[in-house]
Amino acid sequence: MTSYEPHHEASEPRFQRDPVIVPGHTYASLTDRISDIIFMPMKDTPRGWMLAVALASMVMGMLGVAIFGVLYWGIGMWGENQPVGWAFDITNFVWWIGIGHAGTLISAILLLFKQSWRTSINRFAEAMTLFAVVCAGIFPGIHVGRPWFAYWMVPYPNTMALWPQFRSPLDWDVFAVSTYGTVSFLFWFTGLIPDFATLRDRVKNPLLQKLYGTLSFGWRGSARHWHRYETAYLLLAGLSTPLVLSVHTVVSFDFATSVEPGWHTTFFPPYFVAGAIYSGFAMVLTLVIPTRRGFKLHDFITMHHIENMAKVMLATGLIVAYAYVMEIFYSWYSGNLFEWFMMKNRSMGPYRLSYYLLILCNIITPQFLWFKRVRLNTVALFVISIVVNIGMWLERFVIIVTSLHRDYLPSSWDMFYPTKWDVMLYVGTIGLFVFLMSLFIRFMPMISIFEMRHLLPEAHVHPPHDESHATAKEHHA
Amino acid sequence: MKREVGIYGVVAEFESAQALVDATYAAKKAGYNDIEAYSPFPIEMLTDIIGFKTKLPAIVLGAGLTGGMTGFGMCFFANAIHYPADHRRQAAQRLAGLDSHHLRVDDSLCRDLCGRGHARSQRVPSALPPAVQSPALRSSDARQVLSLHRE
């Protein structure tokens, strides 16, 4: 074949597995099936969706209370105090930022590797990334104590002649996370433009027509549009790819650049990035499995996708397991009294329960994914994905709190216990996340319509039969 | 004014992506240049046949370089030009020319004035406890005060 061979043919699985789209669909049936979710009357909405939105709204009320309380009375409402000056807020921040990484990996890296199985889940995962960044941003935003001065984190020439501390990894965080949020949004929105045009052409309500028309920037689907679109999308993928690695690397620097025992290690960046992708894929599975069932998307999100995600989870989970072992080894091998004490305190001290739960959730549970029967069982996968989410939260908690609560000076050792305000804020952001995700899957095309059309056999195009591509170019010249 | 009557242009609809590609190719070969094709998903071959070019990569490169240099320039400006200690250092160096012992120095100034000092070199050797200091020297009013001592 010539270079015209469509990429999805080349990347078709060699073994007999579920296809990336169930055969029998046409352009029209695809478009109908995905856009019907958006246009369906409220009474036809699945019960589960209604329930999710109702619950999430209530939890968001709690988020409002939690934010109000902390703003009104100050962050003393949280359980953190010296020596644990950083606890739930940074744990939750890292957890949420990490979750976003799967979206970027699926949308950018799998695009560059021309993996056709990314197509039906990329939009969904990108939205997850975006909402996870929103939830993550809440924590440092509030923890600064006076969030109305949060703009002080941004460098700008001011009358106080003050600049941010450019040598602080916390300042790098500001840049890393804001870049990440911006690029993720652009990537997500660029992908949505042709689909907004499809919705504009199908919706009856003139107001919505205007709205979708504006959002689609007057997309007409001409070959010129597609050419620019594809160029832009590829460039954005190129820009996002380093972000998959860099954002969580910078987050890990928050710890690694300090001299705290247990934090001051060079393997934090790869360890954190692997953990981020691990937790991100777990979250994609947690969200995709009920959505697929609720909206009956079995034709588009097949077991092929779900199994692949489970495999990525297993692979990254093994990297994380390796990191845990190395953490123990190096705290001994460093010959540093405080590092070794930190490890003993982590595994035998007052927080040992969270450490062993973490091993159970993150190392032992994913080993079930070696079995194909487990990978093909959505209920089992759903449970495992939630266990991994919990485990990854515990990982950050253990790293942060066990290092801080007993470091060099025994006279300043103390315990950290979360208050109800800590818990309310954390659970509240989960409510916000579920709420945003629910709105997204109901009112926006959660699966890329045009990319799915591209997967159909009818979309495979061969070079014009009479001449080769080379002569066509010569002719044009 | 005479109105021209005739065919201005032709639009054709095709059943399949393959038919569209074949027709575009045939039209191009027949010498038509102002062609535009519409499709519900990207067909990369159409771009090659019609021969579009886009400036987008150049624009993105330009924007990226601008952003990168602005970011670096901002860090440079903030740390090397606009950093407030630099302004204080000039005044401090003038004072130090008078009597370097009677200069209270902070960390960043100490690096310039005392070399790599330790805590003792940062302390004014003849500093008096607040209780015995002259009130004039501690006054918060704006006055022209120059404190000079001799051991």
Could you please describe the fold and organization of this structure?
The complex is a heterodimer of chains A (477) and B (151). Helix content of chain A is 68%, strand content 0%. Chain A has helices spanning 7-10, 27-39, 47-73, 88-112, 119-143, 169-202, 206-215, 223-256, 268-294, 303-333, 337-348, 352-364, 372-375, 378-405, 420-443, 449-455, 469-476. The longest helix of chain A is centred in the middle third of the chain and has 34 residues, at 169-202. Chain B has 151 residues and is mostly helical. Helices cover 50% and strands 0% of the residues of chain B. Chain B has helices at 17-29, 44-50, 56-81, 84-98, 107-113, 119-122, 135-138. Mean pLDDT of chain B is 70; it is low at 100-108 and 116-123. Chain A binds chain B through residues 4, 27, 155, 157, 161-163, 166, 198, 220-224, 226-232, 235, 450-451, 453-454, 458-465, 467, 469, 472-473, 475-476, and chain B through 16-18, 21-22, 25-26, 28-29, 36-52, 54, 56-57, 60, 74-75, 78-79, 82-84.
Write the layout of secondary structure elements.
The complex is a heterodimer of chains A (477) and B (151).
Chain A: H1 7-10, H2 27-39, H3 47-73, H4 88-112, H5 119-143, H6 169-202, H7 206-215, H8 223-256, H9 268-294, H10 303-333, H11 337-348, H12 352-364, H13 372-375, H14 378-405, H15 420-443, H16 449-455, H17 469-476
Chain B: H1 17-29, H2 44-50, H3 56-81, H4 84-98, H5 107-113, H6 119-122, H7 135-138
Helix pairs in contact in B: 1-2
Distance between the termini of chain A: 24 Å
What share of residues are in beta strands of chain B?
A: under 5%
Query: Quaternary status of these chains?
Result: heterodimer
Number of strands of chain A: 0
Shape of chain A: globular
